[in-house]
Write a structure and sequence with these properties.
This protein is α/β, with parallel strands linked by helices and about 500 residues long. It contains 17 helices and 18 strands. The strands form 4 sheets. A 7-stranded mixed beta sheet has the order 13-14-15-12-11-16-17, with helices on both faces.
């Protein structure tokens, strides 16, 4: 990292043989002082040159590697991040909380767990879950069930537009691109431009030539010409972010190119009466609060509405009160990031709406932090679905049976993603089928909503297969060319 005149951080990385004509700096004011962020003042013609350079390096190096070799290199890079003394991990732990406002201790804990997803054994399991045989069909033609042969091909260049709401989330699709042997231009958000850059630098520590097929840099969403230029020269576009971002990019991508979108999603939690016994209710509340608290619900994985089943030793209203206490304790352990004016306005509006509802319906209750806006729980005695302004705000709904929940969330099918469950084992499969029918794509244990496995199917799709095209050699061609072998009778 560049250090001059105090803290100057390069929030970009490009192949070592490539240089931009002009660089600029952005000053970030933090409680610990100003940080200068340096990045290229890119021009469209430079994006074109960068794209061609990356494609060339991909053809001469990345495309010659086996998937097994790529996995090994990524795994070695990920292992470096398991060392608390590793230089780039220390940079991340120092600067990410300052850039994002998230609690420093929580950021460290989450990064430790997250980066372990990309160790060699986890990636091997992931590749085998989608491609089998360690992705050998990416390396050469393999026999298929129809009697011929098939080979997978990834895009020559991926253009990825990263979201900036959760530190490190960009690394997921970055690694997916490498596994399908694609060069990558990654556009980062100024909200969190650091982690993908640090990871590419780690790859350079292990294999500089592999790192040279990647370029990561930020530019404003207003720089439409740069975005259109990158799209023009990429074979596939992946965009992650808000509905506004995803929609804007969709309009730029022609029908001849592949577009993969990861837009706004909603999480829900379902708590059965069996998890509300004297032995379990406090633990259940703490797990649910951890799902709410990690990165202040900014990840699509976090719950916004919670459904509590009646008939337990604690009523749903009593459990909402226990949740409130747990949220207050959580705030003392992991502080909330500083709220922006629009976020404060949205939370105040939610609280005002809850107060109005309480006047008309005495069963509605609100529990909230008194001195500030750090957490809010709104309890409703009737089932419904309501999204929240995030930042540790949640709606809690009482239901007679968890089997009723799918009816209330079904209208939001395009936006549903993760459901965290604490239910009786004999009800799990039936409930899972019902939730799957209405659009939920991931079910996990309560307390693990923000922690995906290496082999999860993002938004219900495939991670690698969705990036690949297949070339088939049909059996008749294989048999036909055998006739031209002079040694065959």
């Amino acid at each position: 990292m560049s250090q001059k005149n105090g803290s100057v951080i390069d929030i970009f990385v490009v192949p070592k043989t490539f240089a931009f004509e002009k660089y600029t700096e952005k000053v970030l004011q933090t409680p610990d002082g100003a940080i200068q962020l340096r990045y290229p003042d890119a021009k469209p013609q430079e994006i074109v040159a960068l794209a061609e350079s990356l494609k060339s390096k991909r053809a001469t190096y990345l495309n010659q590697l086996s998937v097994r070799e790529i996995v090994r290199t990524i795994g070695l890079a990920a292992e470096k991040w398991t060392d608390p003394h590793y230089h780039y991990r220390q940079v991340a732990e120092k600067y990410l909380p300052l850039m994002t406002g998230y609690d420093a201790t929580q950021t460290t804990l989450e990064l430790k767990q997250y980066m372990r997803l990309f160790r060699e054994k986890e990636l091997l399991r992931f590749v085998n879950s989608e491609l089998a045989n360690t992705g050998m069909a990416m390396d050469e033609f393999q026999p298929n069930l129809s009697g011929g042969f098939s080979k997978f091909y990834g895009p020559d260049l991926l253009f990825q537009i990263f979201s900036g709401n959760v530190p490190g989330v960009q690394i997921w699709t970055l690694i997916m691109g490498l596994l399908v042997k694609s060069a990558i231009i990654g556009k980062t958000s100024f909200a969190e431009p650091l982690m993908p850059v640090l990871f590419v630098k780690t790859l350079a520590d292990v294999d500089p030539r592999l790192a040279d097929v990647l370029a990561i840099l930020p530019w404003s969403s207003q720089e439409v010409t740069l975005t259109k230029t990158a799209i023009q020269h990429a074979e596939t576009v992946i965009v992650s972010g808000s509905e506004q971002t995803v929609t804007a990019v969709r309009d730029f991508v022609p029908a001849t190119k592949q577009l993969i979108r990861y837009g706004y999603k909603i999480g829900v939690a379902l708590v059965g009466r069996i998890a509300l016994t004297a032995d379990y209710y406090r633990q259940t509340a703490e797990k649910l609060v951890s799902d709410l608290g990690v990165y202040d619900q900014q990840a699509c994985l976090a719950p916004q509405s919670v459904y509590i089943e009646r008939g337990g030793q604690l009523s749903p209203a009593e459990f909402a009160s226990v949740m409130a206490t747990a949220l207050d304790n959580y705030q003392h352990q992991y502080r909330q990031a500083t709220l922006q004016p629009a976020e404060k306005l949205a939370i105040n509006k939610l609280r005002q709406n809850a107060l109005s509802e309480m006047i008309n319906n005495q069963t509605t209750q609100m529990f909230s932090s008194r001195e500030d806006l750090t957490w809010t729980v709104v309890y409703h005695d009737t089932p419904d679905f309501q999204a929240t302004p995030l930042n540790r705000t949640v709606h809690v709904h009482a239901v007679d049976s968890l089997s009723d929940v799918p009816n209330y969330i079904a209208p939001f099918k395009p936006y549903l993603q993760t459901a965290g469950l604490a239910v009786a084992p004999q009800t799990l499969m039936t409930l899972a089928r019902q939730l799957g029918e209405v659009g939920v794509t991931r079910l996990c244990a309560l307390g693990e909503m923000n922690h995906v496995s290496a082999a999860w199917h993002h938004d219900g799709g495939f991670n690698l297969l969705d990036l690949l095209r297949v070339v088939d050699i049909e059996a008749n061609l294989d048999q036909y060319v055998e006739r031209f072998d002079e040694d065959v009778e």
